[in-house]
């Protein structure tokens, strides 16, 4: 299978498995709109492939698996939360619909949306350096933060 050249992903095909690395180590592998779209495309290609039987997703480097949404980019979208979240929501839907095993190899921090993404995996393999958490709980963001505010 021929893969396009993604600027924010590294594809390592070792059929019948493909290893996909989020390649934004300078941003803790956070998903900006371009990275989310590229990863969505890669997952769709895996799903359509007759020769690929599984996908492994990891992050480039050992600092972070994925820091979730790119908050620097998201700041530009204030007041338009739906548009800001849409690429990630579409990515989650495609990952959830993947008909082949999806293994996530956590090699560092899995934060926020990067942690949430782990729930879409069929298996998670974590290194001893893996750290997973939801910072939203501490600052009142998202559903977890809202639940905390309701209890107070």
What does this structure look like?
The chain is of the alpha/beta class. It has helices spanning 33-48, 71-75, 81-96, 113-117, 136-139, 142-151, and strands spanning 9-14, 17-22, 54-59, 64-66, 102-106, 109-111, 123-126, 131-133. Strands 1-2-3-5-7 form a five-stranded mixed β-sheet, covered by helices on one side. β2 (17-22), α1 and β3 form a beta-alpha-beta unit. α1 (33-48) packs parallel to α3 (81-96). The model is unreliable at 143-152 (pLDDT under 50).
Assembly annotation: single chain
Largest sheet: 5 strands, mixed
CATH H level, superfamily name: 2-enoyl-CoA Hydratase, Chain A, domain 1
Per DSSP E runs of 2 or more residues, the count of β-strands stands at 8
Distance between the termini: 54 Å
Give the strand content: 15-25%
List the helices and strands and how they pair.
Layout: E1 9-14, E2 17-22, H1 33-48, E3 54-59, E4 64-66, H2 71-75, H3 81-96, E5 102-106, E6 109-111, H4 113-117, E7 123-126, E8 131-133, H5 136-139, H6 142-151
Parallel strand pairs: 2-3, 3-5, 4-6, 5-7, 6-8
Antiparallel strand pairs: 1-2
Helix pairs in contact: 1-3
């Amino acid at each position: 299978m021929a893969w396009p050249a993604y600027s924010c992903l590294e594809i390592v095909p070792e059929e019948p498995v493909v290893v996909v690395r989020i390649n934004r180590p300078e941003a803790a592998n956070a998903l900006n709109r371009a990275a989310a779209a590229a990863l969505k495309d890669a997952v769709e290609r895996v799903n359509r492939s007759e020769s690929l039987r599984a996908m492994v997703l990891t992050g480039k480097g050992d600092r972070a698996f994925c820091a979730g949404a790119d908050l620097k980019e998201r700041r530009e979208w204030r007041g338009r939360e739906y548009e800001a979240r849409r690429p990630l929501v579409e990515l989650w839907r495609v990952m959830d619909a993947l008909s082949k095993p999806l293994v996530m190899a956590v090699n560092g921090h899995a934060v926020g949306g990067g942690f949430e993404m782990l729930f879409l995996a069929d298996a998670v393999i974590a290194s001893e350096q893996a750290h997973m958490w939801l910072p939203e709980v501490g600052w009142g963001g998202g559903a977890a933060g809202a639940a905390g505010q309701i209890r107070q």
